Amino acid sequence: GHSADVMSAVFSFDRSSVLTASEDGTARIWSASTGECIMTLSQQGCGGLASAVFSADGSLVLAACDSGAAKIWNAATGEEMRKLLEDGSWCLGDPLISAVFSAHGSSILTAAGCDGAKVFSI
């Protein structure tokens, strides 16, 4: 499992998987039926993760990082697809608290500790 506190946990839309985000800097995809860890998503420089969510179709994972970045991974392969806000510049480097996909999947909404929220096209 995780080596630090788990900050969020969500089901995939088809309820076959559970996604957790941890202060250890990883997001993990688990089998909802067996509890087995299917995949660990990690990347240097992200810090701890405040939240992680699946896209509506389950193909992507989005995580909010303590570094102020947001990361998107391919949920099937674990490949990092995109890193947004690498320097956290929109909110003076404050940690992100959450990040979510829009219903249609073309945008993400992020919230940060500076009392700010911002939408990004992906």
Helix content: under 10%
Order of helices and strands: EEEEEEEEEEE
How many runs of DSSP E, i.e. beta strands? Answer: 11
Can you tell me the overall shape? Answer: globular
- Distance from N terminus to C terminus (CA atoms, Å) equals 30 Å
Record the strand order, biggest sheet: 1-2-3-4
Percentage of residues in DSSP E strands: over 45%
Rounded radius of gyration (Å): 13 Å
Q: Can you put this structure into words, describing what you see?
A:
The protein is mainly beta and 122 residues long. It has no helices and eleven strands. The chain has a four-stranded antiparallel sheet with strand order 1-2-3-4, with no helix packed on it. Strands 5-6-7-8 form a four-stranded antiparallel sheet, with no helix packed on it. Strands 9-10-11 form a three-stranded antiparallel sheet, with no helix packed on it. The radius of gyration is 13 Å and the shape is globular. It starts with 5 loop residues before the first strand and ends with a strand. The mean pLDDT is 88.
